[in-house]
Amino acid sequence: MQIYLPIAEMSVNALLLSGIGFVVGWLSGLFGVGGGFLLTPVLMLIGIPSPVAVASGANQTLGASVSGLLAQARRGNVDWVMGSVLVVGGLLGSVAGVQLFALLSRLGQVDAAVAIFYVVVLGIVGSLMVMESVRAIFRRRAAMPRRLHQHSWAHGLPFKLRFRKSRLYISVIPPLAVGFFIGVLSAVMGVGGGFMLVPAMIYILGMPTAVVIGTSLFQVVCVTASVTFLQAVQVGGVDIVLTLLLLLGAVAGAQFGASMGARLRGEETRALLGLLVLAVAAALLWDLLRLPPNLFSVGPAW
Amino acid sequence: MRALLALLLALAVAGPAFAQPSPLVARLSVNRVFITTAFTGESLMIFGSTEEPLGPGGDEVVVVARGPSSPFVVRRKVQVLGLWLNGPSARFEDVPSFYAVAGTRPAWRILPEEERRALGLGLDALSLDRRSGARSPGFRAALLELKQEAGLWQENRSTVEVAGSRLFNLLLPLPATVQPGSYRVEVLLVRSRRVVARESLGFTVERIGTAASINEVARERPALYAIVCILLAGLTGWLGSVLFRRS
């Protein structure tokens, strides 16, 4: 069933889009991540122009994260104070990111820049995930005691604020910086950034794991909303038909994935997710390195 | 007084036309092509008849169709530190978003070269001179190749079919990526290497229905559109999780 996408100005199979949404949703439910980092590259792979893939990917991640946020908020797993600081950083980051994106698209470098961002970010995150979970699998056998949270350089900065829910008394600078960085990535890559935000919250900010998922979802929802808005106004790439078709599959897939994910062990799940992230990075890197089938490309001039 | 003069003039012109049938009559199967949410491209038929017989030794018909023009950029990838990035680019002004030419025989066989070029019949006769950026002829060639691959530029993809030596027709396929706007179709009658009659026709490609409204709102009122997108995505995500909850 072909459907005409009004913003991408092309005709795509609606079932294919919902199917992609379902698979990505299933994987994201399985691993407890938003799935934007899988969705945007797949969209570019099937020929959706990268500005539309990035902007609609962010919009889709927003929809996919809302229900998770509501569920976490009901259970009281959101640190709203920490979330707000992260969101302020994230909003500033998304503004900067969209400016960068607009500049890249004027220079005609969007495709390569988005791919390079993906390769670098996913390569680093995937490697860390795999290493960390392999270490954890070995550590499980040795059964080492864990501290409540690690004290790091982040605890010595000024502008301290008390985050009751996270049982932290730290400077607002690290969460602002983390939020900003995720905001930039969200705008350029069309992702929520949960896959980076969660480890950053645990290892850099030292937040307790119970509130990490809920608080990161709060940041993801706010920042993807901001990215959607700015991308729609400045670049004009948000395709609501594309977003809704993807969401349709994704929300169904996420529920199946979540019920399956509950049966997997934490470390193994993270190792698998890390491998998946590395595979996406490798596929995109290959695309950048190999001789392109056609050296020339044509596009409308702005 | 002026109106009366105009009327007389019109009668004077039209009068002989009634008396002797015109050598060429052509029409389009549709005057408006609609891009709806289910649009996957469309074919339209150009048909007509001639006074004199068509075919070898007789008259020939050439059809040329042009879509709205806009500027395009052609980019060439170059290898930087092992990565293939977009490098030099050339900007072409006035590039027809759609172009098709076909005839009972290829235009270059039935018209003198200067005549054919002047009429813009054939991809090599397209004037793509207003350009800036990289000067290499490779960019022009790449533009031709990519547009043809996309089915947006067609040169003698099919021939004008003749029935009963006086009726002719041509099926013109428009791919799903056609731009909205007004299109011009010219039908030329060629006799002994000269254009002896022509008929100018036109059709429009329009977005209608949901696709049109979405595109219009996104263009005209992007802030409103963005807010609707955010709310719709949020609502769908929430509704979906309620519908598909498996616990």
Automatic annotation (TrEMBL), chain A:
It is found in: Cell membrane; Membrane. Keywords: Cell membrane, Membrane, Transmembrane, Transmembrane helix. PANTHER family: MEMBRANE TRANSPORTER PROTEIN MJ0441-RELATED, MEMBRANE TRANSPORTER PROTEIN YTNM-RELATED. Pfam families: TauE. Belongs to the 4-toluene sulfonate uptake permease (TSUP) (TC 2.A.102) family. InterPro entries: TM_pro_TauE-like, TSUP/Inactive_protease-like. The keyword Transport does not apply. The keyword tRNA processing does not apply. Its main location: membrane. It comes from Sabulicella glaciei. The chain crosses the membrane at residues 12-31, 37-59, 80-103, 115-138, 168-189, 201-230, 237-258, 270-289. It is a multi-pass membrane protein. This is Probable membrane transporter protein.
From TrEMBL, chain B:
Keywords: Membrane, Signal, Transmembrane, Transmembrane helix. The chain crosses the membrane at residues 223-244. Residues 1-19 form the signal peptide. InterPro entries: CHP02186-rel_TM (IPR019088). It holds the Pfam family Alph_Pro_TM. This is TIGR02186 family protein.
